[in-house]
UniProtKB/TrEMBL annotation:
This is Protocatechuate 3,4-dioxygenase beta subunit. Residues 310-319 have a biased composition (Low complexity). The lineage of its organism: Bacteria, Bacillati, Actinomycetota, Actinomycetes, Glycomycetales. Residues 288-306 have a biased composition (Gly residues). Residues 79-98, 284-319 are annotated as: Disordered. It holds the Pfam family Dioxygenase_C. InterPro entries: Intradiol_dOase_C, Intradiol_dOase_core, TAT_signal. Residues 139-192 form the Intradiol ring-cleavage dioxygenases domain.
Length: 319
């Protein structure tokens, strides 16, 4: 009599793809694992084996001390901004949000077929999400997809030299304090844009597979004094010239208010890495007007309206 083969399982859940390894069970299986742990995954070998990375358990691993938080009366809604032409969310070509492994806090390395790591000065990014439609309550359970260019100003999945990489992109789920944390590197300043970091906010982790579900899309403006310090380091030489040709007052995204609510608090240094902390007010009662791929055309240049990352085939606006 033949013995019936038992379907492999993990944490009591049968594999979605019994013939594949644990790391290849797909995004929905990863999400199930994430939710079973109440949105808290710890970095290390165990998380790496799942293709997932950690969000903190509330301890201060970033070296930032305490989370920057605005008082209820001072909090403003984060401005809606374009996701640019390189979102990687499926709205303009490549879609990382469908891939198993995208839920991770350390975004310095690619995952999947490549483990190449982006080089540069260390940077931890800590966002505190507030639900403005719910008396500024901490937005527990909201998911943040964050991405930015590398030290050379290139975007993974798009720029020719790193089209096969997916580093400097990842998703984290807000903890009970509304906090998400990412470990990354300091991005470059490329021609025509002020240095920046993109992010999209989703109501929950199940919503991340469709960019249309985003409830906020915005950008973090990098503080000039910190940029000046980092760009003096080896590897960032081109950023010095590019930064000299643009300002927060002339940048096509931040010029309306010089990035007033998008400039983070900063701590740290070049040797130990920097920490950015930023309160993010999200009003779900207003329409999410950002997102989507920016139109092609326009141009970079002397602080002009466009931006052209290295390796792009054409000039693009709102990148």
């Amino acid at each position: 009599m033949k013995t019936k083969q038992q379907t492999p399982s993990y944490e009591g859940r049968p594999y979605a793809k019994p013939e594949e390894e644990l790391v290849d069970q797909g995004l929905q299986f990863d999400i199930g694992t994430l939710l079973s742990r109440r949105g808290v995954l710890f970095a290390g070998a165990g998380a790496a084996a799942l293709g997932l990375a950690a969000c903190s358990d509330g301890g201060d691993s970033s070296g930032s001390g305490t989370t920057t938080a605005a008082s209820a009366e001072d909090l403003t809604e984060i401005p809606e901004e374009t996701a640019g032409p390189y979102p990687g969310d499926g709205s303009n070509g490549p879609d990382i949000l469908e891939q198993s492994g995208v839920v991770r806090s350390d975004i310095r390395s690619s995952f999947g077929d490549s483990t190449t790591a982006a080089e540069g000065v260390g940077l931890d990014i800590e966002l505190t999400l507030y639900d403005m439609a719910n008396d500024n309550a901490r937005f527990e359970g909201a998911a943040v997809y964050l991405w930015h260019c590398n030290r050379d100003g290139e975007y993974s999945m798009y720029s020719e030299a790193i089209a096969n990489e997916n580093y400097l992109r990842g998703v984290q789920v807000a903890d009970a304090d509304g906090v998400v944390k990412f470990t990354s590197i300091f991005p470059a300043c490329y021609d025509g844009r002020w240095p920046h970091i993109h992010f999209e906010v989703y109501p929950d982790v199940d919503s991340i597979t469709d960019a249309a579900n985003a409830i906020a899309t915005s950008q973090i403006a990098l503080p000039q004094d910190t940029c000046d310090t980092v760009y003096a380091e080896e590897g960032y030489e081109q950023s010095v010239e590019n930064l000299s040709k643009v300002s927060l007052e002339t940048d096509n995204v931040f010029s309306d208010d010089s990035g007033a609510s998008q400039l983070p608090s900063v701590s740290g240094d070049v040797d130990g890495g920097f920490v950015f902390t930023l309160p993010v007010g999200i009003d779900t009662s207003t329409e999410a007007g950002g997102g989507g791929a920016a139109p092609s055309g326009g141009g970079g240049g002397e602080g002009g309206p466009g931006g052209t990352p290295p390796g792009s085939e054409e000039s693009t606006s709102d990148s």
